Amino acid sequence: MKKKLLALAEKHGTPLFILDHEKIRKNYRIFKKNLPRVQCYYAVKANSNQEIIKTLFDEGSSFDVASYNEFMQVYEYLKHFEEKDKDFFIWDKIIFSNTIKDPETLRKIKRYRPLVTYDNSDELKKIKGHCDTAGLVLRLKVPDTGSQVEMSSKFGAEPGDANHLIRQAFDAGLVVEGLSFHVGSQCTNFDNYTAALAITSEIFHEARKKGYNPKIVDIGGGFPVPYDAQVPRFEKLAQLINAECQRLFPEDIEIIAEPGRFIVATAATLISEIIGKARRDGKIFYYINDGVYHTFSGVVYDHWIPNFHSFGRGEKEVCAVVGPTCDSFDKVSLSEQLPGNLGIGDYLYTENIGAYSIASSTKFNGFDGARIIHIY
Ligand SMILES: Cc1ncc(COP(=O)(O)O)c(C=O)c1O
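A: This is the predicted complex of the input protein with pyridoxal-5'-phosphate.
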């Protein structure tokens, strides 16, 4: 593998973001195989590269989008269906799962009769005012203890407010089609899913008793990636979800999920290059041509712990790896075990960097960010 990476770096230059589409397909198939009842809506935000959307679309995936631009990135592959097939239903392919949408976005997506989430009364009024063709999914606040990225401090209706928010929607002439939650990203505490499904089930059955007819349960994202050996296995989580869904929800309920990280994280490798070296307070600092403003943005936004591997051998010591910008904040890691004898022009590589990396890369200091290449 190292030889292959080196050849790619020599051919294309660095920083180089290598996307393996066979791995994306494999991750998608593992997800589907282990959760046969669940339709996968890939969360485009994790990595919105158009080629990923194309690969997953060809596999049969649906998509979770957060903005009008993401919506149109997916719609690109749907427009001909809409023209040809009058029974085509955009909900089968897209859920707009950002609970807060600006009025202009709502006006722009109105003509597509979208499926959108909400979690409060003001959003409901906004949807009614600007996009009354939408079907609604009520997002619930659920426990996210121990997840790498928590969600519940910003999103989700208190379970105690759910009945009221459902009634309010129907009173306004809108239809609540389902319930959703997100247990936090990279969720390794599976009790979060158990608790979230229990909360959802209670509200679901209460709504049915009241004569409402929710048909969709959206179990969100959070499915953990094996970044290290401590991460509990996805297959175990899938067993739990399957059993709980069967126990809690009738057969005719559609279960959907919005995995992001799980589909793309392990599908990318980054090759960076050492462009400077200094010893500071006794520690070697390797300056590389990528950093936290670029492909390593997940270190900031995603609480991601990076990994670095060298191609050359040598006695290892604790080194710092820092980015190329003039900001002293641009430190990727202060404790990497790397050979101390690496020099300018040597490459490093980083695995499992497909999610929340290039998605939030900037052009800070005028650096373009990594070149992306696709392996099919
Ligand atoms: C609404 C929603 N759905 C799905 C996801 C994807 O989550 P993950 O990458 O943990 O699977 C996110 C991540 O931020 C999200 O906000």
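The pocket of pyridoxal-5'-phosphate is lined by residues 43, 45-46, 64, 97, 182, 185, 220-223, 258-262 (CB under 6 Å). The mean pLDDT is 97.
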